[in-house]
Amino acid sequence: MRIRNKTQLAETLETCRPALLDNPNILKALLAIQSARGYVPTNAIPQIAQVLGVTEAQVAGVLSYYSDLRTQPPGRHLIRVCMGESCMANHGARVFRTIQEYIRINARDPTQAERFTVEQMSCAGNCALSPTVMIDADLCGRVTPSDVLSLLEPYR
Amino acid sequence: MNLTINGRSVAAEPGDTIYMAARKAGISIPSLCVSHQLAPFGSCRLCICEIEGQSETPASCTTPVRPDMVVRTESDRLRRHRHNIVELYVSEQPEGSEMSGPLRELALACGVDRVRYPDGARSKRASVRDDSNPFFTFDNAACISCARCVRACDEIQGTHALTMSGRGFGARPTAGGGFFMGEMSAFATSNCVSCGACVKECPTGALTEKTVLEKGISTGTVRTTCAYCGVGCAFDAGVRDGRVVQMMPADDGPSNRGHACMKGRFGWTYNDASDRLRVPLLRRGNDWEEISWESALDLVAQEFMRIKEKHGPDALATISSSRGTNEENYLFGKFMRCVIGTNHIDNCARVCHSATVTGMMETLGASAATNSIQDLDLTQLIMVVGANPTESHPVVGAKIKQAHRRRVPLIVIDPRRTELARLADLHLQLRPGSNVALLNAMGHVLVKEGLLDHTFIAGRTEGIEDWLNTVSDCTPEAAEVITGVPAHLIAQAARLYGSSGASFCVHGLGVTEHRWGSHGVIALCNLALATGNIGKPGTGINPLRGQNNVQGASDMGCLPTYFAGYQSLDDPKLATLHQTITGRPLPTKRGMKTPDMWDAAIAGRLKGLWIIGYDVAQTDPNLKKVHEALKHVEFLVVQDLFLSETAKFAHLVLPGASFLEKDGTFTNLERRIQRIRKAVEPPHGILPDWRVVCEVSTRMGYSMHYQHPSEIMDEIARLTPMFAGVSYDRLDQHAGLQWPVPTAMHEGTALMHQETFPTGKAHFVGVEYLPPGEAASKEYPFVLTTGRILQHYNCGAQTRRTDILELVDTDVLEMHPVDMKGLQLRDGEIVRVVSARGEALLPVVGSERVMSGHLFTSFHFPASTVNALLSSSADESSKCPEYKVSAVRVEPVERDELDPEDEAELRHMRRQLIT
Predict the structure, then answer these.
(1) Using one digit for the tens of pLDDT, what is the confidence trace for B133-183?
(2) Distance (Å) from the C-alpha of residue A21 to the closest C-alpha of chain B?
(3) Which domains does chain A have, with CATH numbers?
(4) Which residues contact B394 (CB under 8 A, 6 or more apart)?
(5) The pLDDT of residue B123 is above 80
């Protein structure tokens, strides 16, 4: 589910409006927007600040700090490659580079440009089966660079 | 408790950190991120220490003390660590540039002369430079990300305009949403109020004043007192080559404790403005002729003598300056009373807090803040009535916000949704002019719910019956009809105020500048008396005085009804003393108040007028009448820094010396008499005002000779029991004295009325609600209120000559968006505001700070002639004008009615950010 317009952003924000005498929860609001919209549009910072009763600086500070908060719209599918110690030791970085390469070549086709976004993650807790790649909510273990093509193919 | 630091036994309080305990004992520990103005943070790691029984090296600034702990702050290991940490900091500094401030000293102290990381973090610091603030710059290259600036903005100023952005090597302070929306202009687009707290805290010079960048670092400092609002912030004026380069708020300043606001911190550059008056100017038709000081002084003496001989002393008057020093004000009073022989002297307190003087005199017997600013640290509840301290008295405003952060309840009674109103636990948004109805209804609730302090009432007051009778039928429901405030909110406010334990009340011109302003003050005093909220720490009635020395000008007897120290003019003992000390009798007949002077001038009774540092032709209400009166005066002398609107009417204009160019004292809003000290020489041999009076007086046959203002103060002390213990020696020793100071041994009075009131007991005075002088009508459907904004100060003569103009360069009419829609107006459109007296052209901006049907504007720019709209309606007893209620209508302006200049203005107009 993604919000397409401003009214919907306002609706999401409304659920985060602090109750009387309650402290505003900036992080919670940003996560709510991200989960509804896939990312936090930076031009919404003034509106977020207004609803929460905080300043723009306070919103921007939180938004810039957490790597999990995105300010750009992600692709249709989010690939996260684990960079924890175990995955790193098992060539997770090589897997990451292969995926990046795949996406780069893929993006030459304009219809595929918004298909994937790839990010690094710290530890997926899947160390026994490292290296780990998560595609949306699907967990894949023991991934090698040669698996990448067949792994990503089904996600259109 | 005791602990051992570096082998010494040191006393500490529970809750202290090791760093604080060491500091109290005079042991200094190196640090960058520590500031005693801020909560412990522990980011720079330089203040590390060794604690016996612990192997690691914790930061002393965040480690609480324990009894009998043994701490070392110096050892080989600590020195090695510190050296390495400083080296890392230095590695982030721009190559080849000269470091400034504490980091440079630390590098020297730790012996860091080279950096082992040639390509250290320097390349990783984003190159960010923000010059968008008019007063200071931010350069990320010199920043060490200690977050002192961010913490200063949060903890001291409470504006939260800054944040740390990003992570790791990328972490840096940014203003507003600048990290995402443009860091080059982050300060300008943020809600920063340019108080300068961040610049003061910065240990590396990443944030630096532009004046320092332009003129260089100061080579010496002079302690003085700010000449803007009545808070009386202590500043160290940084001087270099005979010019001021910086104004730095003093940490030991009794009223500001190291804080300041935009005006005091950065708005002093008018001192070097190119259009400062340099020589006396004599009117020749429509031209000015420059004349010498000698002939100017001769002329004043000659004309005043002529008028006195021909028309008698009552044909002469002076309006003294609330911005001048106490000594100058006293001398003007002395001049009028001893040389001319009349009490026709007034000062601009007339148009701001004269209703406070009347109202507080009648109830408490003394007309000044009962408590001190630092009582805001002790209070259990703050009630702000008709005041907007975050803009008009920003340092007090910041203090109130600090208290609110500590969860001290805040009640705001104001027609506007000001910054404090938005923060407040209760905002009673009443209709302008209905204060008395609301305050009486609060009294009604206090009585009904048994919240009165009967012990206090019985022992310290009289006349409660009068008040009980008055409030008995003032139910909150009845008040709701008059004020528009829901009855349950009024009741809740009363309960909070009456039961907090210590309720501190501040009020401003929203109480006084009304048709029944002194009644508003009386109603407020009644509440304090009924609940015993007076004479105790953290309580009281505290008027926020608008100008640096408006308290002092009144204290010094620049009033037509009182001599210095509010002594009665017909007091026989005073008369004898006056005769002995001055050699002249004290005139007993009451003089004219400023509005009476206008009537007298128009009627031809007032022939000569001397106005010092007060722009009546811009700031007094009903400007048409004031202008007419000024034209009628035969000989008008105006003394000012600039050719003000009033000076344009003068026959003779005398240049004045600014507060940076003379010695003297100011009295702030908490009755604290503080020194101002000459930091630089006045340009072109300008005489300070006190010398001018002496010269004129001597020329008129009454010799006045003082070597230094301190001698004037000594004379004041002899004449005025309340200042008897004041002398310059003591003022220098004690960082000021709060009057009354009855003897040379007396320490001054931080808290008034502790044991008794000046009149013995305080008086309740029942005051009924009476409607304001004007109400909205079919023809004039809006109620206009005028006031100040943060950026500018009164007539704007000073602030308009500084870089503050980059922020705000016009007065703006604030109108509720609903009304904007109704009139089909757009933001920034120029409209005509029309009252029964006159009209003004102003750009309109939609703002939810005002209610529908209510308008607000400031009066800082002469071009807007806002005061032409206002009536001569004034408080019955004090003649304090009704600035806060004028019925007006708003009309669109056709484009072809605007002259090309206005058009240009419209195009260039910067829309004031209203948040």
Answers:
(1) 999 999 998 888 999 999 999 999 999 999 999 988 889 999 999 999 999
(2) 8
(3) 6-65 (no CATH), 77-152 (3.40.30.10)
(4) B193, B195, B229, B261, B262, B263, B790
(5) no
Q: Is the pLDDT of residue B915 over 60?
A: no
Paired strand residues for B831: B842, B892
Whole-model pTM? 0.90
CB count within 10 Å of CB B715 equals: 17
* Among candidate residues B348, B862, B339, the one with its CA nearest the CA of residue B608: B339
Question: Which among B164, B166, B177 is the nearest to A56, CB-wise?
Answer: B177
pLDDT tens figures, B164-174: 999 888 899 99
| DSSP letter for each residue of B699-711 | HTT-----SSHHH
**Is the predicted pLDDT of residue A21 greater than 70, yes or no?**
no
Q: Is B220 on the interface with A (CB under 8 A)?
A: no
Three-state SS annotation for B79-140: HHHHHHHHHHHHHHCCCCCCCCHHHHHHHHHCCCCCCCCCCCHHHHCCCCEECCCCCEEEEH
Looking at this predicted complex, what is its ipTM? 0.85
Residue B641: the pLDDT is 93
Question: To the nearest whole angstrom, how far is the Cα of A73 from the nearest Cα of chain B?
Answer: 15
> Lowest mean pLDDT: which of B383-392, B462-471, B558-567, B890-899?
B890-899
Of A42, A55, A65, the CB nearest to B191: A55
pLDDT single digits (tens) B581-615: 999 999 999 999 999 999 999 999 999 999 999 99
Interchain CB contact of A65 with B (< 8 Å): yes
Q: Please report the pLDDT score of residue B620 as a whole number.
A: 86
Q: For helices A26-37 and A56-65, what crossing angle results, to 10°?
A: 60
Pairs of CB atoms within 8 A across A/B = 57
User: Would you state the pLDDT for residue B901?
Assistant: 57
Picking from B641, B677, B684, the residue whose alpha carbon sits closest to that of residue B662 is: B677
In this structure, the number of other CB atoms found within 10 A of the CB of residue B668 comes to 30
CA angle B48-B49-B50, nearest 5°? 140
Length of chain B: 915
A72 touches chain B (CB under 8 A): no
Say yes or no: B406 contacts chain A, CB-CB below 8 A: no
**Residue in the block written with tokens 């911005």:** B323
A95/B92 Cα distance (integer angstroms): 35
* Domain architecture of chain B: domains with CATH: 2-74 (3.10.20.740), 281-352+549-722 (3.40.50.740), 354-543 (3.40.228.10), 782-908 (2.40.40.20)
Which pair of tokens denotes residue B7? 């082998």
CB proximity under 8 Å: B 176-195 to A? 176-181, 190-191
Q: What is the Cα B314 distance to its own chain's centre? A: 35
Picking from A99, A85, A97, A98, the residue whose alpha carbon sits closest to that of residue A131 is A85
Dihedral sign computed on CA atoms, order B128, B132, B133, B135: positive
Mutation test of the interface with chain A: which of B150, B153, B163, choosing the one with the most A Cβ atoms within 10 A? B163
Closest C-alpha to B85, from B59, B62, B61, B52? B59
Look-up of token digits 């504007």: B857
Pairwise CA distance, residues B355 & B873, whole Å: 13
pLDDT at B867: 84
CA angle B544, B549, B551 (to 5 degrees): 55
Task: Quote the DSSP letter at residue B338.
Answer: I
Residue B628 parent element (H or E): helix B623-632
In this prediction, residue B908 has a pLDDT band, given cuts at 50, 70 and 90, of very low
| Distance between CA atoms of residues B345 and B94, nearest Å | 60
Residue of A nearest to B405 (CA): A23
